[in-house]
Amino acid sequence: MKPEENFKEFWKKVLAEVQLEVTPVVFGTIISRTHLEQLDDNSALVLCADEFIRKNMEKKYFAIVQEALNRIAKKDIKLVLGVKPISTTTDKKIGQDAKDLGPLFQPKDPNELLNEKINKSGLTSKYTFENYITGKNNQLATAIAKAVAEKPGEIYNPVFIYSGVGLGKTHLMQAIGNFILKNKPGMKVIYTTGESFTNEMIDAIQSGKGKGRYASNDFRNKYRKADVFLIDDIQFIAGKDATQEEFFHTFNALYLSQKQIVITSDKPPKDFTNLEERISSRFNSGIIVDMQTPDFETRIAILRARRDKDIDPINNEVINVIAENVTSNVRELEGAYLRILSYAKATGEEITPEIAMVTLGQTIKEKNKKPVNMNEILNAVCSYYSIKSSDIKGKKRTKELVLPRQVVMYLIKDLTNTPYISIGDFLGGRDHTTVMYGVDKIGQDLKDKQTIKQDIVNVKQMLFSV
Ligand code: ADP
Ligand code: MG
């Protein structure tokens, strides 16, 4: 690349970043009327079309451009503003500089720009209010979320939403973010999870050597610049001291400057046992709202909306069957729907309520298979073959003991997926290769020995019948 191209390319990247942080109007009337005149190792001279633009740049957009410069240069570059000498062609229209530099200044397509902003915020565009079904279970939470999206930082702050898994917390929270990005393009939205926040915090401590348990300024600034801070699954930070501390400071900084904060969690603040008191009391200062499992009608509405969006070949009767049988949460509901849909697509058959029942029946049964542990398996096998567990664990290798011992090995592997080494330890300190052999042996026998097959079925029945 020629140096001239490098230079243009560099400025293009800076502008692309800046464009994500200002409104289209600001970009069109201010930012696009500047250009990079000079760039060296330490400084960048940016010329503004006139004094008005320069003043605006200096007062309002300096930090944004400065930070974008540093990010793209990957080092500190001093931003110096100047005014372009008045040229003989006085008539400076909006975007004229843009044309000077070819395609560099062409504002992006608004949709593309919005998508970039969504990605940069950490959001996913598919979670919107439009596709969020409201029922009795989430009415209040949805109303609060919409109010906050309309007037961030002005009505309820902070907002704390809690519910069990799969009930729509992440969807609702991201809908707030997506709405704001779309309708208030100048606002900076940051979405993160308790887990990512913690991980970033750890990285920041590690890279900021010598600062003990404190995060670097980059980390701090990232979050403190937000106009809207969305933090999902906050329960993750409970009990992690340094992260809690950092979160506390981020929270306070944003709260004091009246920035919107939204938090979700799997439980209400009062149920946190290892969250610092000063943090949970902050949560209580705003509004706390919970969400319940959706009722039958709401489950149907969710499934129908889903079906209609893609015109899936699933009729209302089948939807009723799913809604009647899957009641735990929306994620499970969607999962069941998708299984039936993929069955329909794979077979090309029309799905009847009966087929749906069978498909659901299998998954419901699998889920209900209660977990068993090694001791329960050992006891069931011993009582089935009428032998003592000490004999199974012991050294004797008589025929009466070898088979049941191998059945225990096989069932433990099959039902608990315990490592071979641990199974060996459990069975009186046997070598893992012995266990592997036993598991394999029964696996082979199952293919052609009817009696073994029956034994295994019977023992399983003993284990799983209540
Ligand atoms: P949570 O964060 O509470 O565990 P999610 O927001 O991840 O739950 O929701 C699980 C799935 O269910 C997502 O695909 C989400 O889009 C969907 N979902 C949840 N609630 C609703 C709702 N009220 N309307 C439509 N889809 C929903
Ligand atoms: Mg979630």
TrEMBL record:
GO terms for cellular component: cytoplasm; plasma membrane. Residues 373-442 form the Chromosomal replication initiator DnaA C-terminal domain. Residues 345-466 are annotated as: Domain IV, binds dsDNA. GO terms for biological process: DNA replication initiation; regulation of DNA replication. GO terms for molecular function: ATP binding; DNA replication origin binding; lipid binding. Oligomerizes as a right-handed, spiral filament on DNA at oriC. Domain I is involved in oligomerization and binding regulators, domain II is flexibile and of varying length in different bacteria, domain III forms the AAA+ region, while domain IV binds dsDNA. This is Chromosomal replication initiator protein DnaA. It comes from candidate division WWE3 bacterium. The gene is dnaA.
